[in-house]
Design goal:
By secondary structure, this protein is of the alpha/beta class. The chain has six helices and four strands; from the N terminus they run H-H-H-E-H-E-H-E-E-H. Helix 4 runs parallel beside helix 5. The chain is globular. Bound molecules: S-adenosylmethionine. It holds the Pfam family Methyltransf_7.
């Protein structure tokens, strides 16, 4: 019981630095931005195949662990551009409506995201030089290790640089003294137990994503 309380507390307080100041996540997330750039082709392929298969009227997309800042919008604008290009190529009369669900823990700076929506939309329409389908944004506070979406709500689920935040510390790694992660100096049981824990957590995570 005590352990569950501790986990719950972390999920209640954990957050990246909000706002746009010098120490904010928005200004200090170039490494994560690089990861998003490196996975661009994968995302394009996935969203293309999904859109061509389903051609949904409303395309529902979730970003799990979206944080706040330019990276949040980078993924969204890339997805919209890919789908808009497809619509043009396929000569669809209408673009879909886009519904983006921005998920993160409750202390995330959701307000920063919402405040930037106006400038994001302006920038996007300048870049695309055409009208896109209407875009809707919903903040979804809560841990992605629990149910945060009703059944069959989403077409596409994205998450970058977030799943390494485990839902719990693996049991039996108390001898990992002096480290807060798996390091070169960690005893061998640490990597074995962390791997086993990760498999369990990712299996649980995948089953939640499939439900949504
Ligand atoms: C390093 S940031 C990555 C943000 C963004 N996806 C990017 O690529 O820049 C990780 C984010 O995951 C969020 N996060 C960690 N564990 C989470 C959980 N269990 N549920 C929802 N969000 C979580 C953190 O609050 C943080 O905003």
């Amino acid at each position: 019981m005590e352990k569950i309380e501790t986990r719950k507390d972390v999920a209640q307080v954990l957050h990246m630095n909000g706002g746009t100041g010098e120490t904010s996540y928005a200004k200090n997330s170039l490494l994560q931005q690089k990861a998003i750039s490196l996975t661009k082709a994968l995302r394009e392929e996935a969203i293309t195949s999904l859109y061509l298969k389903k051609v949904p009227r409303i395309l529902s997309i979730a970003d799990l662990g979206c944080s706040s800042g330019p990276n949040t919008f980078m993924v969204i604008s890339e997805i919209i551009k890919t789908v808009e290009n497809l619509c043009r190529e396929m000569k669809h009369k209408e673009s879909p409506e886009y519904h983006f669900f921005m998920n993160d823990l409750p202390e995330n700076d959701f307000n920063s995201i919402f405040k930037s929506l106006g400038s994001f939309k302006e920038k996007l329409s300048d870049e695309i030089e055409a009208e896109t389908g209407p875009c809707f944004f919903t903040g979804v506070p809560g841990s992605f290790y629990g149910r945060v979406f009703p059944t069959k709500t989403l077409h596409f689920v994205h998450s970058s640089y977030s799943l390494h935040w485990l839902s719990r510390v693996p049991q039996g790694v108390e001898n990992n003294k002096g480290n807060i992660y798996m390091a070169r100096s960690s005893p061998s049981n640490v990597s074995r137990l962390t791997m086993r824990n990760f498999k369990k957590i990712s299996h649980h995570f995948s089953s939640l994503v499939q439900k949504s």
